[in-house]
Design brief:
- This protein folds into two domains: 233 residues, no CATH class; 138 residues, no CATH class.
- Helices cover 63% and strands 4% of the residues.
- The protein is built from 19 helices and six strands.
- The strands form three sheets. The chain has a two-stranded antiparallel sheet with strand order 1-4. A two-stranded parallel sheet has the order 2-3. A two-stranded antiparallel sheet has the order 5-6.
- The protein is elongated and about 80 Å long.
- The chain starts with 9 loop residues before the first helix and ends with a strand.
Length: 391
C-alpha cells in the first residue's frame, strides 16, 4: 500500500480531516460570507488572501460567483428567482441537489454582473483562481496523497464533499425549512442549532437573515458562533476590523415618549419586534379566542397560528383561506392582525421625513392603547420604551 510522508493512527487521520475541513468552513463563513458578500468586517490583506487561496485549493469556488449567488439569494429570498429556496424548489431538491442549483446560478451572466460588485479582480483572480478553478483541488489531491498515502484519497474525498454537503445542502436547505426562529423575518430562515461550531456559526441562519450585515451571527446569550470567536481573535491581533454587528436594544419602562430614538430602535430591531408581537399579542389573544370557541371554529383557530404570525412568507392558497376565515370569525383577531400590518407599515413607509414616521408610530401606540385589548395595550408600552444601547 502506498504510504505518505505522515504515518498517523486512524484517530490521527480523522483529526487531520476535521481540522482541514474546519479551515475550509472558517474560510467560507469569514471570508466569502461575512467579509465579501456582506462587508460586515475588513480583513488584513494577508489573511484575506490566505482564505482565498485555501478555498481555491479545497472547493474550486470562485469568489465572484459565490458572492453573486448569495447576494441574489437575499435579494430574491423564497421567490422563483431565489437560486436555492426549499420553499420553492422543495426541501429534497435543495438538500440533495444544492450544488447543481448553485452551479446553475453561476452560469447566469446577469446574476454575476449585478450581484458581484466589489469582489477581488486582481491578476491572481483573473489569471489563476477564476481561470483555473479546478487546478487548486488537483493540487490539494496530490498533496493529500503525498502526505497521507492511500488514506489521502479518503481525506481528499471528505474535503470535496464537505462544503456541498453542509453549505449547499444543509444551510441552504434545512436552514430554510427546520429549526427555531429568534426573528420574524419575511422568509423561512431557521436557526439549526444554538451552538454554531460544525458549520462555523452558519447554523444561526435565521439570525443572519434578520441582520445580514452583522459580523456576529449569535444573538441570544445562550448562542455560540465560533466564526465570531475567530473574528475577535483576528481583531485582537490587528488582522480584522468589525464594521457592523446586530443592534442591541433595551426596553425602558420609564420612557413613554415616542420620539426619533424610539423609531430608530424599533426599525433596526423590527424582526424582533414582530417576533415579540407574535408571542405577546397574537398568541395570547388566539388562545383566549380558542378557549371561548367550540367545534369547527375551535379547530380553525388551532390551525391558523402560523399564518397569523408568519405572513411575511408567501402563503399558499390554503393558508390564505384559513387566515381569511379566522379573521372573519373573530373581530378581536382581525383587530390584532390589522395592527400588525399597520406596525409593519411604519418601517416600510417610504417617507424620508423622520418626523412623519415618528408620528405614524406614535399614532399606532395611541390607537393600540384605545383598542380595549389588553395585550395590545401592554405591547404599546413595550414599544414606547424601545431604545438602542450605546455599548
Amino acid at each position: 500500500m502506498l504510504e505518505g510522508l505522515l504515518d498517523l493512527s486512524i484517530m490521527g487521520y480523522i483529526g487531520v480531516t476535521l481540522m482541514l475541513t474546519h479551515i475550509t468552513i472558517a474560510s467560507v463563513t469569514i471570508f466569502l460570507h461575512r467579509y465579501q458578500a456582506h462587508n460586515a468586517l475588513t480583513l488584513h490583506p494577508a489573511v484575506s488572501h490566505f482564505f482565498r487561496f485555501w478555498l481555491w485549493l479545497t472547493t474550486a469556488m470562485v469568489t465572484r460567483e459565490w458572492v453573486a449567488v448569495h447576494r441574489k439569494h437575499h435579494a430574491k429570498c423564497e421567490t422563483e428567482e431565489d437560486p436555492h429556496s426549499p420553499q420553492v424548489d422543495g426541501i429534497w431538491t435543495v438538500l440533495l441537489g444544492g450544488v447543481g442549483l448553485y452551479h446553475a446560478a453561476t452560469r447566469d451572466a446577469e446574476t454575476l454582473e449585478h450581484y458581484s460588485k466589489g469582489t477581488p479582480d486582481d491578476w491572481l483572480e483573473r489569471g489563476v483562481y477564476s481561470r483555473f478553478p479546478y487546478l487548486g483541488v488537483v493540487i490539494m489531491g496530490l498533496l493529500d496523497l503525498l502526505l497521507f498515502g492511500m488514506a489521502g484519497l479518503i481525506v481528499f474525498a471528505v474535503q470535496m464533499v464537505w462544503i456541498p454537503l453542509w453549505a449547499a445542502g444543509v444551510i441552504n436547505g434545512l436552514g430554510h425549512f427546520w429549526g427555531y426562529r429568534n426573528f420574524e423575518t419575511a422568509d423561512a430562515s431557521r436557526n439549526l442549532s444554538p451552538i454554531g461550531i460544525l458549520i462555523g456559526g452558519e447554523e444561526l441562519h435565521n439570525n443572519h437573515h434578520a441582520y445580514a450585515h452583522s459580523a456576529r451571527l449569535s444573538n441570544r446569550w445562550w448562542e455560540f458562533d465560533i466564526g465570531w470567536f475567530y473574528i475577535k481573535v483576528l481583531a485582537l491581533f490587528g488582522l480584522a476590523r468589525v464594521r457592523r454587528i446586530a443592534p442591541k436594544v433595551r426596553i425602558s419602562r420609564d420612557k413613554q415618549v415616542v420620539d426619533l430614538e424610539t423609531l430608530r430602535a424599533v426599525v433596526r430591531d423590527r424582526y424582533h419586534v414582530l417576533m415579540l408581537y407574535g408571542r405577546t399579542v397574537i398568541r395570547p389573544v388566539l388562545r383566549a379566542e380558542r378557549r371561548a370557541s367550540r367545534g369547527a371554529e375551535r379547530t380553525l383557530l388551532r390551525r391558523v397560528r402560523k399564518p397569523l404570525i408568519r405572513d411575511g412568507i408567501t402563503l399558499d392558497a390554503r393558508a390564505r383561506a384559513l387566515l381569511a376565515d379566522a379573521l372573519q370569525q373573530s373581530q378581536t383577531l382581525a383587530t390584532v392582525y390589522r395592527f400588525k400590518v399597520q406596525l409593519k407599515a411604519v418601517w416600510n413607509h417610504t417617507a424620508s421625513d423622520g418626523a412623519k414616521r415618528v408620528e405614524r408610530l406614535k399614532t399606532w401606540c395611541n390607537e393600540a392603547e384605545l383598542s380595549g385589548i389588553e395585550a395590545l395595550q401592554d405591547f404599546s408600552g413595550v414599544l414606547r420604551g424601545y431604545t438602542l444601547r450605546t455599548a
